[in-house]
Specification:
3 helices; about 60 residues; globular; alpha+beta
């Protein structure tokens, strides 16, 4: 289940494995299962845009 949706009382299937703390190329953090959470694609896109400063930011 999507962690963010569950937090607001919605039951939506998770479709993406998200890194709670962005790994930014750190392979140890990338493969650390304690750093993973399930999100739906909508919540993952929202989180990624927020962390990266929005779409089209040139990163």
């Amino acid at each position: 289940m999507c962690k963010d949706c569950l937090d607001v009382g919605k039951v939506i299937a998770a479709t993406v494995v998200d890194h709670i703390t962005p790994h930014r190329g750190n392979v140890v953090l990338f493969w650390d299962e304690k750093n993973w959470q399930g999100l739906c694609s909508t919540c993952h896109s929202r989180k990624t845009a927020k962390e990266d400063g929005g779409f089209g930011n040139g990163k």
